[in-house]
Amino acid sequence: MASFQAITTPAAAITSHQICGNKSSTNGSGVASFKAAETVIELASMFKEKPDPSNLVFGTAFTDHMLTIEWSASDGWQKPHIGPFKNLSMHPASSSLHYAVELFEGLKAYRGVDNNIRLFRPLNNMERMLRSACRAGLPSFDKEELLKCIKKLVEIEKAWVPNSSSASLYIRPTLIGTEPSLGVKKPSQALLYVILSPVGPYFSTGSFSPVSLWADPKYTRAWRGGTGDCKMGGNYGASIYAQYEALEVGCQQVLWLYGDNHQITEVGTMNLFLYWINENGDEELATPPLDGVILPGVTRQSIIDLAHEWGEFKVTERYLTMGNLTAALKENRVKEMFGAGTACIVCPVGRILYKGNNLHIPTMDNGPKLTARILKQLTDIQYGRIESDWTYLVQ
User: Fold this and answer.
1) What is the pLDDT of residue 9?
2) How many CB atoms lie within 10 A of CB 249?
3) Is residue 340 classed exposed, middle or buried when 0-12, 13-18 and 19+ CB atoms within 10 A define those classes?
4) Over the stretch 23-34, which tens digit does the pLDDT of each residue have?
5) Cα-based torsion angle of the residue sequence 159, 165, 169, 170 in order, rounded to the nearest 10 degrees
6) Residue ranges in the chain whose pLDDT is less than 50
7) Helix (H) or strand (E) holding 130
8) Nearest 5°: phi and psi at 196?
9) pLDDT recorded at residue 5
C-alpha cells in the first residue's frame, strides 16, 4: 500500500489559507451575499457564429452573454445580471488598473458522452476565489450562490459547450476593485463578472506533447508571505517577461525556482509533479507543498486524491530542488515529470534547460504511463464516462 506524506509548512510561512481559510467556509465575514434566485436575465438580440472546435485558440473567442454583479461598501451586493457580452466601463482611477486589486478563477464546463454538461469540482474554485478575495481586500460572497449564478449562465450558453472530447467551455470568474480614487486602500466599489470562452488544447503543440522548460533562478514567481497561493493577475503579469526570455532560449515554459537551493515550485502556470524513485528507494509521486508559494490547484489536489486512492506508490507533498532532480537523473531514478492545471489537465515535461545544460526528462520514454493514466482518469470523469461525485451537473 502507498503512504501519503504531507510536509509541515515552516513556521515562518503564512499562507492565504491560514489567513482567510475560515472566511471561505460560508460567505466570509458576514457580508450579505447576492442571491442567484434574484438574477436578472437580459438575452442578447444578436448572436455570434460559433467557432470550429478543432481550430480553437485558447481564450480568444467569447460567448454571447456574461454575468455581472456590482458591489459597494454603502449598498452591498446588487442583484446578479446576465446580459449580452460587452465591454466594461470603468473610472480611469479604478484600483484594479493602478494597484492590481483584482483576482480571477478558471474552471471548465464539459459536454459529456451522454450530452450532459458537467463542471469539475467547482466548489474548490469558489473556495479559492473567496480566499483570494480576502487576501486582496475585496468583498466576500456566498460561494454556493456564485456557483448557482454560473450554472444559470452556462445553461443559457449551453450551445457554446463544444461537442468534443478535446475541447470545453472555459469559465473565467473575475473580481476587480473599481474604487474611483488613487488612494491605496480597500476598495469601496467592486465588480464581479464571469465570461465564457470555448477552448481547445492549451498548448499549440497539442494537449499531450512534451514541453521544454527553462529553469533560471534570476526570476522568482512568488515568495512566502506573498500572494503566490492566490489567483491574482499580478502573479501572472509579472511572469510574462521571463516567459519571453524562455522562448528566446528555445524553451516553451518557465520552470520557476525559489531560494538559494533552487527549489522547484511551478511550471509556467501549472503545478508540478515528479514521479520517481526517491532517495530512499521508494517509488514516489511528489509535488511541492502548499507553503504560500504554490497555488493550490484543483487539478493538483485531484491528482493527489486519485493517486492516494490507487494506493500503488508513495504520494508526497515535499520540497524538491534542482539538486534532487539532477542527482536522480544521473542515477536513472526519474520516471516522469508533468505539469497539471485546469487549462491543460496534465502536460508532460521532456526537457529542462538549467545552467546551460539540457536535461533530458524521460517522461515520454516511459510511456508516459502514469501521466497518460491520470489524463484518462480525469477526462473520463469530466466527460461523464465515469460517474463521480467530483462533477456538478449543469444540464
Assistant:
1) 45
2) 11
3) buried
4) 544 444 456 899
5) 180
6) 1, 4, 6-11, 24-29
7) helix 122-136
8) -125, 145
9) 52
* 257-282 residue pLDDT tens: 999 999 999 999 999 999 999 999 99
Buried b (16+ CB within 10 A) or exposed e, 251-283: bbbbbbbbeeebbbbbbbbbbbbbbbbbeeeee
Q: How many residues does the chain have?
A: 395
pLDDT confidence of residue 45: 96
Q: Nearest to residue 192, comparing CAs of 149, 234, 255?
A: 149
d(CA 332, CA 99): 47
| Rg, the chain, Cα only | 21
CA distance 82 to 128: 23
For residues 122 and 392, the answer to whether their CB atoms sit within 8 Å is yes
For cell 467551455, name the residue.
169
Q: Which residues of 112-141 are buried (b: 16+ CB within 10 A; e: fewer)?
A: beeeebbbbbbebbbbbbbbbbbbbebbbb
- The three grid cell numbers given for residue 11, joined into one nine-digit string: 513556521
Kindly report the number of other CB atoms within 10 A of residue 10's CB atom. Answer: 12
Q: Rounded to whole angstroms, what are the CA distances from 365 to 83, 215, 281, 375? A: 50, 22, 21, 17
- Parallel, antiparallel or unpaired: strands 40-41 and 4-6: unpaired
Four-residue CA torsion sign, 149, 151, 152, 156: positive
| 301 CB-contact burial (10 Å; exposed 0-12 / middle 13-18 / buried 19+) | middle
Could you list the beta-strand ranges (E) of the chain.
4-6, 40-41, 65-72, 76-77, 81-84, 102-104, 107-111, 117-120, 168-177, 189-199, 211-215, 253-258, 263-267, 270-277, 283-287, 314-317, 334-341, 345-354, 357-360, 391-393
Whether a cis peptide bond, with omega within 30° of 0, leads into 368 is yes
CA distance 363 to 371: 8
What's the N-to-C CA distance of the chain in angstroms?
A: 39
What was the pLDDT predicted at 305? 98
Query: What three-state secondary structure class fits 346?
Result: strand
Residue 331: all three cell numbers together: 542515477
3-state secondary structure of 316: strand
Instruction: Kindly give the residue spans of alpha helices, DSSP state H, lying in 4-56.
Output: 16-20
Using the structure block, give the residue that is written with the C-alpha cell 467592486: 190
